[in-house]
Amino acid sequence: MTMSDAHARGVWYPALDGLRGLAALWVLLGHVAQPTLYNRLVWILLNNGLAVDLFMLLSGFLMYSIHEELSEVGIIDFWLKRFFRLAPLYYVCLIASFVLTPWFLEVATEIWSRTPHLHGWPVSNSIASFVAHPTFLFGLSPALQQSTLLPDWSLTLEAQFYLAFPFILMAMKRFGVLRSLVPLLFVQVGIFYLFRDMFVAYVFPSVLPLKLHVFLAGMLIAAFVKGSTWGAGYLTLATLCVVLPVPSFSLSYSICRVAMIGIVLFCTKPLDSKLASAVRFFFSMRIMRWAGDMSYAVYLVHTAIMYWVLSFLVADLQVNPLRSFLVVSGVTLVFSYALAAILHRLIEVPGIHFGRELVRGRAARTCEEKPPPA
After folding, report:
1. What DSSP string runs through 239-264?
2. How large is the angle between the packed helices 212-226 and 153-175, nearest 10 degrees?
3. Is the preceding peptide bond at 247 cis, omega within 30 degrees of 0?
């Protein structure tokens, strides 16, 4: 989901671009910290799964912000636009991932052997992986949720949310936001606890029942920002969503997610506060918004680049952790953002534009096929 979608709808929040940029940087630095500064750095950096939660929160917010689009283009065209938002760049990176798998396994095995606190993951070029990943539904299988060198388990969640969103929106239009989302949350919690033994097999929360509440929290924040007599209820329910004990409860994680809600509000709600103005100014800076534009590509390419850099420093990882972290971070940042800029311009943006033109073409043909009024 890009802020350009929201911009086109006239509901653009520039600071959210910068917030996405921060989330991608957080993921990258957290991944570098794991083999270099493990247990030596602040907790917040190592737990970069919170950055993925931030992506989901923003996705829910932005999807609700442009939900009128669904009424105009219909479900199929809505899904088409979402598909071309994710697929072109992902498919390019996925092909590269399959090609690089033998090299990655050789390099990663050496790194994992020298960093026993790291747990490797089962990367393979299996037939099941080849078939499942292009569908974006690979996350439904615990064995396939991270079977490539890409950190793509969160993309399958995004795709599942896109599939579910039109039906969630239909319920909200018919019954109202709170009357729809409160029962939905009860259903989610019920499914989780009913099939808890099955969900234990998922190392990453790559199925929607494990993360739907985070997307819904983003939608509720957007509803609150839009303004309503139920605003207090929306914000209260959003807060309850991010502290929901699914897949588990963590006080520190819950505090961080509540803080994320505050930051999103600072970025989107006109508040008479110097702190809110400072936060909004920082994330609206040009370099932060540029980082937001690069965030999807950076998210996809940084793991391969990081392991390439680590391969040159594998002997020093535990000898000089701080130097290793600084060197690996610096080089990975430079190459990741440089490659991301190229991929953004040549693949990601043209793919998004192609999806929009495809939908416009379908809409035009539909209008031509309609019989004239009697």
Report:
1. HHHHT--SS---HHHHHHHHHHHHHH
2. 50
3. yes
Q: In a 3-state reduction of DSSP, which class is residue 76?
A: helix
Tokens 């990663």 locate to: 108
- CA dist 265 and 279 (Å) reads 10
The DSSP 8-state label assigned to residue 289 in this structure reads: H
Q: What's the token pair of residue 286?
A: 């040009």
Per-residue pLDDT of the chain (374 residues; tens, 9 = 90+): 455 555 555 567 999 999 999 999 999 999 999 888 876 556 778 788 999 999 999 999 999 998 877 777 789 999 999 999 999 999 999 999 999 999 999 999 989 888 877 777 889 899 999 999 999 999 999 999 999 999 999 999 999 999 999 999 999 999 999 999 999 999 999 999 999 999 999 999 999 999 999 999 999 999 999 887 788 999 999 999 999 999 888 899 999 999 999 999 999 988 888 999 999 999 999 999 999 999 999 999 999 999 999 999 887 777 788 889 999 999 999 999 999 999 999 999 999 999 999 998 887 776 666 665 55
* Cβ–Cβ < 8 Å for 213, 246: yes
Q: Of 17, 52, 91, 20, which is closest to residue 354 (Cα–Cα)? A: 91
Report the distance separating Cα 56 and Cα 354, nearest Å. 24
